[in-house]
Amino acid sequence: MKNKKHLLTFVLAVLLPVSVYAGGEEDLGTSASSFLKIGAGAPTAQALGNAYVSIAEGSEALFWNPAGIAGADDKEFQFSYLDWLQGYKARTLAYVTPMGGGSVLGITANYMDLKDFNCTLADGTPCVSDDIYVRNFIGSLSLAHDFYTEIFKAGVTAKYITENNDGSHYTNMAFDIGGIVQATDWLSLGLAFQNLGDSKEVPTVLRLGGGLHSRYLTVSVEMAEYADDEARYGIGVEVHVPEDIIEFGHFGLRVGYYTRDSHGLSDNSLVNRLNLADSSKISFGFGLDTGKIFGYGVSIDYAMTPYGALGEAHQLGLGIQW
Known about the structure:
Blueprint: H1 2-15, H2 43-47, E1 76-83, E2 88-100, E3 103-114, E4 119-120, E5 126-127, E6 134-147, E7 152-165, E8 168-182, E9 187-196, E10 205-213, E11 217-226, E12 232-241, H3 243-246, E13 249-258, H4 269-273, E14 282-290, E15 297-306, E16 312-321
Antiparallel strand pairs: 1-2, 1-16, 2-3, 3-6, 4-5, 6-7, 7-8, 8-9, 9-10, 10-11, 11-12, 12-13, 13-14, 14-15, 15-16
């Protein structure tokens, strides 16, 4: 208990002053590689309104807060598919393996491309999207460790980033660093710096949040401050149906709210029936984790976010643990 108090005091002392990190209005949209802001690989975070830094776990944590993989007991492999906006799609692979002694290794690969879009050349001439391509790739290697028997987790990630905009090719390196403190059985605190590097080349972001946990409910909040954007805030709620009730695993229903900009009115009939035609701030989803059968467990995670007139973003993740 004494270690926990000292550690919590230290973390709070670190977290409070870094809240001044946000970029000013003159920095809005000045970072390259803006596709790094898309939450590919983390459908749970998307469903929870991007409020995930303090509750991140498993392979999805590699895309949000690398500390979340620390202390993992099982190997895990996940594939996710993100159908974002205007034909932009992402496919991600993530692998997590324990190394013993509380250390865990994580590897990811994320390929994104854009097709079937309207375009105009610099001289104003319309062009056919089949002749234009956008292809981006992110590969990462993460290492995390569990300290004080899961009271404090820390992780680091190194990223290799390539951006190819119709032949204009850019390559960058960036780093993530994060921590999670389990302050009590019902309270966790999280902090992550993502895309550390040249802020003109990559959109560096500070994530800071907390999570409240109970048997039937998890509530999480997060503040994200990008170097080239104003601070954004998210809150997420997951309602749990425990394994001893449904007997074949754990099931959760998720909803989130994130302070992103509005994008006009949606013409989707379902979104309109839900009275969300003018909303780009609400997200929904669910997660299912089966118990191990013959030594293997399976997870399914889904998220949907309406973006007004731009359409809807859908993400599906399929994982296996052994």
